[in-house]
Automatic annotation (TrEMBL):
Pfam families: HTH_1, LysR_substrate. Belongs to the LysR transcriptional regulatory family. It comes from the Bacteria. Keywords: DNA-binding, Transcription, Transcription regulation. InterPro entries: LysR_HTH_N, LysR_subst-bd, WH-like_DNA-bd_sf, WH_DNA-bd_sf. This is LysR family transcriptional regulator. CDD domains: PBP2_LTTR_substrate. GO terms for molecular function: DNA-binding transcription factor activity; transcription cis-regulatory region binding. The keyword Transcription regulation applies. Residues 5-62 form the HTH lysR-type domain. The keyword ATP-binding does not apply.
Amino acid sequence: MIQNIELKWLYDLIILEKYRNFTIASDIRNISQSSLSRRIQALESSLGFEVFDRETSPLQLTEKGKLFVLHARNLLDDFEFNIDRIKGDNHVRSKVTIASAHSLAGYIFPKILGNLKNYQEKIFHVEAINVNETVDSLKNGQCDFIASFYDDDLMNPQFLCHKLFSAKLYLVTAPNHLGRPKYSLEDASVPLMNYTDDSYMGKKVNKFLQEHHSDKFETNFVSSMSLLLKDMIKGGYGVGWLPDYSIQDELEKNQLLIVPLKDSVLSVDIYLYRSSARLNTASESLWNFMKAIDWTIA
């Protein structure tokens, strides 16, 4: 039976997890470093397991610590929210933290707010980062949800997932002054604006190139951000694969043109992931809501 866990220890934990440094965390908590260390040790003693691996630098959470931090953060969020409501503060808003791949954020979040009639009751903290970082953020309990691509590492009982939609990556080019494709596969060499090798889309594109037409393309620019690649392609610097949800307007206005190439349309699946642990009340409600949205790409 767990006894004598103090709320201040949980706040200590959240700050230390955020900064991974006892000196910085103790300054923020306005206590000495030794006091912070004793309080974290007292918390771990009450829990019966270590939350932090002190052998690593910077400080890292243990596997059990990752799970507990998520529970602690949600407990404190609900506690503060309900106390404010009991005090009669009807203007208090609950907090939902979401990490998203860069290319998805601009499509997903306007869709969420457009369907969520009471979104003003919540504060959405959205961080657009690369795909690998979104997965780490969820595993470390630093966010409530991530919007990302299919990931084998998250398909286990520790996490829940919901498939939002399927998308297509199209090979596109800017038009020339006559409105025709600026680049053609009949050219001797076609400049390619590509994703980084370790990114989800980069792996998709590179797999296609290895199996098909790698000799036709010369990579001249690399980025993990599809929005930056889109700007480069629209600027006429080369061709590249872009997701359909990010180029609908450009295709309709003929600012981008699809390059005809056999089997070059690549499929990707987009998921919403969360921990299987109970989230705060607002996040649980949002989870159910987002599963009901029609994510169809027009």
